[in-house]
Design a protein that fits this description.
By secondary structure, the chain is of the alpha/beta class. It is 34% helix and 14% strand. It has 2 domains: 33 residues, no CATH class; 257 residues, Metal-dependent hydrolases (TIM Barrel), CATH 3.20.20. The strands form 2 sheets. Strands 3-4-5-6-7-8-9-10 form an 8-stranded parallel beta sheet. It is globular, with a radius of gyration of 19 Å.
């Protein structure tokens, strides 16, 4: 037996297979750059909205992303920004340029940190550009519910910006890049309950809990999404583990306020989509597929991203 090398799968299977039977990840990784290998995924709706995607800083990534979106019927994608020290993924400047040329295919976010000097003016400048989504990563070292950040949240609410925050354990595979950037991440700040107080204080500010708490804090995230009118969630990256656990335990969850995202290089779309299909099928929850892949995102985008 061998183990699938895809980080969000890790299924064991017989070594007679050339691809993982669950997600389709190939044992020959050279196939990942060939769009012909990214074949049809059966059982998907004709149109998908991706609410959490990244663009790795590699040659021809935009061309590859657009090809894969066409292949899988992805109408539009929300692109995530990253802190300035990170060079492996497109950040604020690159995404602003992309928004000017491909606004019909992408929404973009802008990364900020509430500890930045002159952060209030920065937020106003972002809002004045017509950008709607602010990406935040509390594991860079701050607790979002500290009173010192109330003015920050108030400005987001005033300008009708969406706060999109990482939740869930920070994967240890980032350690080398953290060392290069001189910024080490703290998973403890990624607990969704750190957003409970801000969501209460600022009821007209919309929050998205990325990865719905991952494999550690999925129940906390589910409670937040279900009980706070202004809190939504996305099933991206480690969110597939949160989804599996929520389905397995039969947790109370508002399935109308969560949507799917790839959160991986473009070549990973078929693997992440197959993992989503497998998780829903295993729990006899296939009826949730249209909600996660299109309906909820369309409703959210019309209300908050237009």
């Amino acid at each position: 037996m061998i183990t699938c090398e895809y980080i969000y799968c890790r299924t064991s299977f017989a070594d007679t297979h050339s691809t993982c039977p669950r997600c389709g990840f190939p044992r020959d990784k050279s196939q990942l750059q060939d769009t012909a290998f990214l074949k049809e995924v059966k059982g998907l709706p004709t149109t998908i909205i991706d609410m959490h995607q990244i663009l790795p800083a590699v040659d021809n990534v935009l061309e590859f992303q657009l090809k894969v979106m066409e292949q899988f019927g992805i109408e539009k994608a929300l692109l995530q920004s990253v802190p300035p020290p990170v060079t492996s993924i497109w950040g604020n400047d690159k995404l602003r340029g992309l928004a000017q040329t491909h606004s019909e295919r992408f929404w973009i976010s802008q990364f900020v940190d509430p500890r930045m000097p002159d952060i209030t003016n920065i937020l106003h400048q972002i809002a004045d550009m017509g950008i709607k989504v602010i990406k935040l990563i509390p594991p860079t070292g701050y607790s979002p519910d500290e009173p010192q950040y109330d003015d920050f949240w108030a400005t987001l609410q005033e300008r009708n910006l969406v706060a999109m925050l990482h939740t869930g354990f920070i994967t240890a595979r980032h350690k080398k890049e953290e060392a290069r950037a001189g910024v080490f991440l703290h998973s403890r700040y990624a607990n969704p309950l750190f957003l409970d107080l801000p969501a209460r204080k600022f009821p007209n500010l919309t929050f998205i809990l990325c990865h719905i708490g991952g494999s550690l804090w999925y129940e906390e995230a589910a409670e937040m999404v279900t009980l706070h009118d202004n809190v939504w969630g996305d099933i991206s990256g480690s969110g597939i583990f949160a989804l599996q656990r929520l389905l397995n335990v039969g947790a109370t969850f508002d399935w109308t306020k969560v949507f799917w995202g790839n959160d991986s290089p473009p070549w990973a779309y078929p693997f992440n989509l197959r993992l989503l299909l497998a998780a829903l099928s295993q729990a006899s929850a296939e009826d949730k597929l249209p909600l996660l892949l299109y309906d909820n995102a369309q409703r959210f985008s019309k209300k908050f991203l237009s």
